[in-house]
Amino acid sequence: MAENSVASRLQGTGAFALELEGVGRQFGALVALAGIDMRIAAGERRAVLGSNGAGKTTLFNTITGDFLPTSGRIRFFGEDITTLPAHERIRRGLRRTYQISQLFKGLSVIDSIFLACRGVSRRRFSLLRPAATDVNMVQAQSILHAVHLEAERDILVATLSHGQQRQLEIALALAGAPRFILFDEPAAGLSPTERRDLVAILNALPKHIGYVIIEHDLDVALRVSERVSMMHNGRLFKEGTPEEIENDPEVQEIYLGGRHG
C-alpha cells in the first residue's frame, strides 16, 4: 500500500522523473546524440532499444553525468541537472548499472550491499562495525531478498555466477532509496533461466521506482517496460507501447531483419 501511495502521489503531480530537451553529445566531429527529446513519468518503466552504435549507452552516460551534453538540457524530477557532476545526481536518487560488471570481487555479497547502502547515507564515514539492527544492514537484508540472493549471502562475489553478479549489480543500484534507475543491458550473457529470473526481479521492484532499460534481448525488454523508445544513429527513431514496437514492420525490418514473430 505504501509503495502504491508513493507512486500515486508522484504521478498525481504530473511530475516527470526525466526530461530531456534537445540533448546532444559530440566527440569531435562525431555526433553521438542529436536533439534527443524525451519525457519519462515518475514510476514509469521505459525500454530504449536500437542496434549497436545507435547512441544508447552515450545517452545513459549523458543522463548520469559521466559525459556532459554538448547541447540541450536534462531535468530530474523538475530540477535542472545538466551540469551537475555524477555524485550529485546520485545524491538526488539517480542510479545506474553498467554493461561490464563493476563489483568488488573480494567482498561477500551482504558486505557489498551493506557498503552500497552505507555509501549513500549520512553515516558513510563511520568506522563502527554495524549491528544487526543497523538501518543500513536492515536495508541490505531487504535488498538481498529482492534480488533473490539470500542463499549467497555470505559467499565471496568472485564465486558468483555471471547471472548472480548481474543480480548483485541490481542490488547495488537499489541501495539508498533510489528514485530512478538506468539498467544497461542487464540480461547480457544470461541463460534463459537467468533471464526469466531477471524479468521477475525487475517486475517486482517497488512501483514508485521508475527505470530505463537498455537491452538487446527484445523479449526481456518488452516484458519489463510500459513504453519503448527506439534509437538509430544517435536520434530517436520511434516510440510506442511494447505491442506497437513489436508489431511495427519498419522496426522488424531494420532491427530484427523481419524475422521476429
TrEMBL record:
Note the CDD domains from the entry: ABC_Mj1267_LivG_branched (cd03219)
Q: Which GO terms describe its molecular function?
A: ATP binding; ATP hydrolysis activity; L-isoleucine transmembrane transporter activity; L-phenylalanine transmembrane transporter activity; L-valine transmembrane transporter activity
* Residues in ABC transporter domain copies: 18-258
Q: Which terms does the UniProt entry file under GO BP?
A: D-alanine transmembrane transport; L-alanine transport; L-isoleucine import across plasma membrane; L-valine import across plasma membrane
Gene Ontology cellular component terms for the protein in this record:
plasma membrane
**InterPro entries per record:** AAA+_ATPase, ABC_AA/LPS_Transport, ABC_transporter-like_ATP-bd, BCA_ABC_TP_C, P-loop_NTPase
Q: Which SUPFAM superfamilies match?
A: P-loop containing nucleoside triphosphate hydrolases
Highest taxon, organism lineage: Bacteria
Q: Which Pfam families match?
A: ABC_tran, BCA_ABC_TP_C
Entry keywords, A to Z: ATP-binding, Nucleotide-binding, Transport
How is this protein named in the record? Branched-chain amino acid transport system ATP-binding protein
Organism of provenance: Kaistia hirudinis
Q: What is the lineage of its organism?
A: Bacteria, Pseudomonadati, Pseudomonadota, Alphaproteobacteria, Hyphomicrobiales
